[in-house]
């Protein structure tokens, strides 16, 4: 006699914000799938919809509120979590029918709310999930979160009030997760946190047993061990602490990708002081030169804020001159936007919106020229490229070691009979301001 299994509830997910929030979404879905829930890619089939919100900027909050409104309109049964969950009253006022609200990385609360909203029929056959967990990224790359929270108190940022102070994961737990991801097909590990350089400070850089030896809870030690797993290892959100210098030789050795994502935010000392960030920008330039001497292929990306309160034309010109000397490979910029609860909101010297726009345009024009020149210098060279998309007819898109997914440039391939996740050697034939174009070499 055939066994008829009960039909498990289906959960939909809308995930907004940064890669750290994406990892939170993956953990939530992994737990729900292990509990027997199915996943739904559309509103119609979902028994309940989760909206993982972002609350870093006012524009991000509006996007989150719009996503909640859409989910309620399309489905009606909505649970809200994530950074904006700290503003439950605002969400309730706008959307009184929301079933439950929780803050960032409150996994148990989210899962519990789903169990209440859509109880699952008990069945031993439904609790199935891959050992590596469920992913919202392609199979060949994975974000690896090593800590939560941040100990900095930058005047423009409310992340510590949302996510709390630094809480690092044990290095052996991180390495076990990384091993499972690589075994499941991950070929690129993207290390993320709020402050990767501070990893392990709260653990006093204690050591844990690993593979018959010990590994410290320290960025350098963790990067070295991750580099032994056979996947590309890319470091994000790295503050330029002195010990970052010790990671550069690992890049030269090929254990870690020659790539650093460092949020400099500005260069003018007066602006950095108002931001409550380190202001030894001259020494940073010296260190960048030193990094390039050790690892000539290192790519450095960063983000900057224009129009910060009190930023003068002289401050902005200083930033442009600093960028001319630093010659960063990839640069993103934000116009300063007051965030509710940020100390910077009370600073004098607000910059008019039209001036913010003008400075933003000038910065992006300057950095685009630097990027174009750097990319043009790669024409005629061969680069390793990881394939993200392939059309099966010879066209493909991938990334070099200098490019992180979603935020950096791409390498567009012709005559490439490849599959996503393949790593191929590519002859670069052309370049524009942001991307490269080439053909695989045999």
Automatic annotation (TrEMBL):
A single GO cellular-component term from the record reads: ribosome
Cited InterPro entries: Elp3/MiaA/NifB-like_rSAM (IPR006638), Methylthiotransferase (IPR005839), Methylthiotransferase_CS (IPR020612), Methylthiotransferase_N (IPR013848), Methylthiotransferase_N_sf (IPR038135), NA-bd_OB-fold (IPR012340), Ribosomal_uS12_MeSTrfase_RimO (IPR005840), rSAM (IPR007197)
Q: Can you tell which superkingdom this protein's organism belongs to? A: Bacteria
MTTase N-terminal domain span? 9-119
Family annotation (Gene3D superfamilies): Methylthiotransferase, N-terminal domain, Nucleic acid-binding proteins, tm_1862 like domain
Question: What are its E.C. numbers?
Answer: 2.8.4.4
Q: Which residues form the TRAM domain?
A: 376-442
Q: Where in the cell is it found?
A: Cytoplasm
Statement: the UniProt record of this protein carries the keyword Mitochondrion:
no
Q: Which PROSITE patterns match?
A: MTTASE_N, MTTASE_RADICAL, RADICAL_SAM, TRAM
Quote the NCBIfam families the UniProt record gives. Answer: 30S ribosomal protein S12 methylthiotransferase RimO, MiaB/RimO family radical SAM methylthiotransferase
- Physiological role: Catalyzes the methylthiolation of an aspartic acid residue of ribosomal protein uS12.
HAMAP family (UniProt xref): MTTase_RimO
Specify the protein name: Ribosomal protein uS12 methylthiotransferase RimO
**Protein encoded by which gene:** rimO
